[in-house]
Design a protein that fits this description.
With 302 residues, the chain is α/β, with parallel strands linked by helices. It is 43% helix and 17% strand. The chain has an 8-stranded parallel barrel, surrounded by 5 helices. Helix 3 packs parallel to helix 4, helix 5 packs parallel to helix 6 and helix 6 crosses helix 7. The longest helix is centred in the middle third of the chain and has 22 residues. The chain starts with a helix and ends with a helix.
Amino acid sequence: MFQRRNFLRLFGTSLALSTCPFPISPTAKGIEPFARTRPGQMRLSLAAYSLRKYLAPRDNTKKMDLFDFVDFCFDHGIPGAELTSYYFPEDLDRDYLLKLKRHCHMKGITISGGAIRNDYCSNNESNVERDIEHTKQWIDHYAVLGAPAIRIFAGNAVKDEDLSVTLKRCALNCEKACRYAEQKGIMLALENHGGVTAKAEGLLEIVQQVNSLAFGVNFDSGNFRSSTDPYAELAMIAPYAVNAQIKVDIYADGKHQPTDLARVLTVLREAGYSGWVALEYEAQEEPLVAIPRYLNQLKHLM
């Protein structure tokens, strides 16, 4: 009888887990640093935001589309492309997504991830619900494309509200969005992107309250701009990373300086990180000139 009860219990659990790509642990309080096999394996990608000057021109600059962007990645010998949502046509449909997916495959380019705009900190319920629906819509789009992860934002502190209350609400909204992402086999990666995530402590306070295996951190090397030692803050969030971006600029005490690219990659290596590292170029030099140079440096370092 004991064996039969255990079989039924285990069978029932297995059946439940088999219906969801990222089942939630009923006892988890929030995600823990990921257990990783070392050394990790990192792969180089390029974020479409790097070519925003051409993907969303504000003047007479020659315009690119995402098909051109994929060609650019192919021409420069990098295996991955982050297809940022900002540069999709407003009238995109499933046919467009399938054509873009085929184009990537025929070029040998893997879609490393996606990115959306959202604010999960707001105390305006209708605005948050709108952003969660927006997230779900893009989860559906990126699921068609086969993207493994989408980077999302937290938002800003709410005036006259205790920060811990804001962070708890943000975590609950992240978890709500993750429940949908789980069904599509996609991970949501919370980026250290100013606002309540301007410091590692704020980001981690959110992360450690989200109960979903479809959740993690988008590690952005250039976004800790108020820290004396941004590399130390990056080391704090690296164990939770499911996606990584590297910028060519970094800020210590708010002062701009060139990123030590090797040091950033060392931070990821020491955390055992495996996965995509996307160059997100935001510097002033002409991107068509600077990006190939930085890609070559990263290829050498990786």
